[in-house]
Specification:
single chain, 7 helices, five-stranded antiparallel sheet, alpha+beta, Phosphorylase Kinase, domain 1, seven-stranded antiparallel sheet
Length: 301
């Protein structure tokens, strides 16, 4: 399959109606299904940046498909929303847009998204590290004393967050708060599924020289069965922290194959995380693209 050459910031597929645009995806309602189009937009601190990353939408789509397929073959896995990513099986009205869609899109089942992000952390980094320094906890989970930045946790922990509107920040919440939001039974089912997926993905990645420090998943409810579905993307450089195993050294931040590289640049120029965001230099754009493709190459082989 050809990797798209042009940077796609917004799809304009007039024959398919007006899409709902998220931070990265353009979602077209085709009636009995959604068409998910992964653009090359990149966000940081919940703000979409001016520049796109070449090939990013392709990487997110192909890596998500790899994981969705891998977990679909496991008996204990939650089903996912993918119908097909084979362009030749898309509806006839999509055919004029092959150049835009092929490689960066998938046809998915409709679902009612849960109003929480399902985050699993196996290592102490990011907002979890900041909270731990202040309170010794992450999202209400008490952790052992004396842990350092990037330390491996004794066991992976489930740390949900709110799902904030675009341009505002997600907020970490406790599991008790999640239960009050979605219900006890569903919260427990989704937590168990998230931890199971993370542990199996982490083992898969370690064999390929990558540490999955943490990851964010999304679930929705099948409108007919009211059962959970894995939706959106799965275990990509946008939704996860990927660290090279050969340079892992706890006690500091780690090099990565994900958008932490972009976050680090933005922090280096003292951006406060509110719009308007600064422009990314060409070197940061190019290096980010390289990191995303390396993650895809390593993890999907």
């Amino acid at each position: 399959m050809k990797v798209p050459k042009d940077i796609l910031l917004e799809s304009q597929l007039s024959g398919l109606g007006t899409p709902k645009r998220g931070k990265v995806r353009d979602i077209y309602d085709l009636g009995d299904a959604f068409l998910f189009v992964a653009s090359d937009r990149i966000s940081a601190f919940d703000v979409v940046l001016p520049e796109g990353i070449p090939g990013k939408g392709y990487v997110l789509t192909q890596l998500s498909l790899h994981w969705f397929d891998l977990f679909a073959k496991m008996d204990d896995s939650v089903p996912n929303h993918v119908i097909t990513a084979d362009f030749d099986r898309f509806p006839e009205k999509c055919r004029p847009y092959r150049e835009v869609l092929e490689g960066r899109s998938m046809l998915v089942r409709k679902a009612e998204p849960l109003p929480v992000e399902c985050i699993v952390r196996g290592y102490l980094s990011g907002s979890g590290w900041k909270e731990y320094q202040k309170t010794g906890t992450v999202c209400g989970e008490k952790l052992p004393a004396g842990l350092v930045e990037s330390a491996r946790l004794p066991e992976p922990i489930f740390t949900p967050s709110t799902k904030a509107p675009m341009g505002t920040h997600d907020i970490n919440i406790s599991f008790e708060e999640m239960k009050s939001t979605v219900g006890v039974s569903l919260a427990e089912e989704v937590r168990a599924a998230s931890l199971n997926i993370y542990k199996k993905a982490a083992a898969h990645a370690e064999k390929r020289g990558i540490i999955i420090a943490d990851t964010k998943m999304e679930f929705g409810l099948d409108p007919k069965t009211k059962r959970p579905l894995l939706i959106d993307e799965l275990l990509t450089p946008d939704s996860s922290r990927f660290w090279p195993m050969d340079t892992y050294a706890p006690g500091k931040g780690q090099p990565s194959f994900d958008k932490q590289y972009v976050r680090d640049y933005l922090l280096s120029v003292n951006w406060n995380g509110t719009p308007p965001p600064p422009h990314l230099p060409a070197s940061v754009v190019e290096q980010t693209s390289r990191k995303y493709f390396e993650a895809l190459e390593r993890l999907s082989k």
